[in-house]
Design a protein that fits this description.
This protein is mainly beta and 212 residues long. It is built from four helices and 18 strands. The protein is rod-shaped.
Length: 212
């Protein structure tokens, strides 16, 4: 018998066997030792019947043709974050690696061989920049840099060329100096520094640095 849905019984109403089966038994979660015991007890299941199998610790519902559910995903309908689809085969997830690494606290690594770069929040916030030029390199921080307060960028001077961090309108405080027009150099090759945004257009430069 199919489940009958929900019924509000009134006081004194006769509770017929059909009511017990349709409103209670067929709509309760029925407990069985295994699938064989369930088949023996329910020869002709109805769509929507729920059951729990002890041997596999799985909850299943009869979908009209088979008991479905359990612990494994047997099919996925592709949406905006999935490719593929269908009822079988592999599912490919499109994962934004930048977002994933940021959520895990891992900074994206960017290698730059140029001799000039202006920091921007979109391209550099939360990154590690490795400068590799053999020539002098200028890294500019201006009002368009616009880092989020609390955000940082790590700067590594891996090339032989000296890396200079220059303030252009934004405030950089470091090495006992606060400036909107001055510059700071990072120490010898393989030295590093961190630029931290502490307020809108205001930064602290921390590391092996000195004012120019």
């Amino acid at each position: 018998m199919s489940g009958l849905g929900r019924k509000v019984f009134t006081a004194g109403e006769v509770l017929a066997a059909a009511d017990v089966n349709g409103y209670l038994m067929d709509q309760s979660v029925m407990l069985f030792a295994d699938a064989a015991a369930r088949t023996a007890a329910i020869a002709t299941p109805s769509e929507g019947m729920p059951s729990y199998l002890i041997d596999t610790s799985s909850f299943e519902i009869y979908d009209g043709s088979a008991w479905a559910g359990g612990g494994d995903i047997t099919s996925v309908v592709a949406g905006t974050a999935l490719t593929g689809g269908g009822t079988s085969g592999d599912v490919t997830l499109n994962v934004d690696l930048a977002e994933t690494t940021a959520a895990a606290g891992i900074a994206s690594f960017v290698t730059d061989a140029t001799t000039a770069r202006t920091l921007t929040s979109a391209a550099d916030e939360g990154k590690t920049l490795q400068f590799t030029s053999a020539s002098a390199t200028v890294l500019t921080v201006d009002t368009s840099t616009d880092f989020t307060v609390g955000a940082r960028v790590d700067i590594i001077q891996d090339g032989a060329g000296v890396v200079t961090v220059t303030a252009d309108g934004a405030t950089i405080a470091a090495a006992e100096v606060s400036t909107t027009t001055g510059s700071f150099t990072i120490g010898a090759q393989y030295s590093a520094a961190t630029l931290l945004c502490v307020a809108t257009d205001e930064y602290r430069l921390i590391g092996n640095i000195q004012a120019v």
